[in-house]
Amino acid sequence: MNQAVVLKIFEFVILVFALSLHEAAHAWMASRLGDPTARMLGRLTLNPAKHVDPFGTILVPLAMLFLFPAGFLIGWAKPTPVTAQNFKNLKRDDILTTLAGPVSNLLGAVVSTLLLILLARFSVAGAEMVRELAGGIPGPGLNTGSAAVPVAIFLYLSVWLNVILAVFNLIPLPPLDGSHVLRHFLPYSALRMYDRIGLIGLLLFLFLGGPLIAIFVNPLLGFVNAVLLNFAI
User: Distances from the Cα of 90 to the Cαs of 12, 24, 85, 99, in angstroms?
Assistant: First the structure.
């Protein structure tokens, strides 16, 4: 199979599981704060089947991968149901539940980074691949005979995609997580106009917002690359 296609498959698989982690984190935090709705509906799980949205999890990412390459990849899953009336402190608990999703993706990126460090420490091929990935050096490809190479690529893509998802979801554009936080600070008169931005604004952003995402993603990835290069020696 063509290596470019294999990498796109890697990206798609990682995205699906990163989205599942994101929604499960929403469900977990809501449950911890007194709202069992998502947990009772089976959403407190990493099983992608419970979170997949045909449009946001399947069609949009595949289109971005194979039809309209945008230089980054994002998507979304089925929104985690939350009954805000179950929260003791509506504003605080709703914000914490909302932020749990992006935070889970940042933690996913941290875990993937730590695994890359371990791989670099205990595998010569892994260390070489990590140096090439973190240094932006073209690698030898997947057909190297060492299992450490595809594992390193998979983990590095996991860092990249989890960081992108965290940043993307914090953008205050309905219906992203950032908009749920911002809503608590807007006057009632502005909410109706704000909500009208909706899905059309989001779809436009998917294909035009790459430079904005890069402003925040690139410094984070630059820091990760510096850490990896320090350990992959």
Answer: 35, 20, 7, 14
Given 11, 23, 128, 132, which residue is catalytic? 23
170 contact partners, CB below 8 Å, separation of at least 6 = 102, 176, 177, 178
Under the banding of pLDDT at 50, 70 and 90, the label for residue 194 is confident
Residues 6+ apart with CB under 8 A from 143: 3
Pair 103, 177: CB distance under 8 Å: no
Positive or negative, the CA dihedral 47, 52, 58, 64 is negative
What lies within 8 Å, CB to CB, of 63 at 6+ separation is none
pLDDT digits (tens, 9 = 90+) for 9-20: 999 999 999 999
| Band of residue 42 on the pLDDT scale cut at 50, 70, 90 | very high
Q: Classify 83 as helix, strand or coil.
A: coil
Token digits of residue 11: 């990206």
Measured CA to CA, the distance from residue 230 to residue 215 in angstroms comes to 24
Annotation marks residue 23 as catalytic: yes
Residue type, 11: E
pTM of the model: 0.91
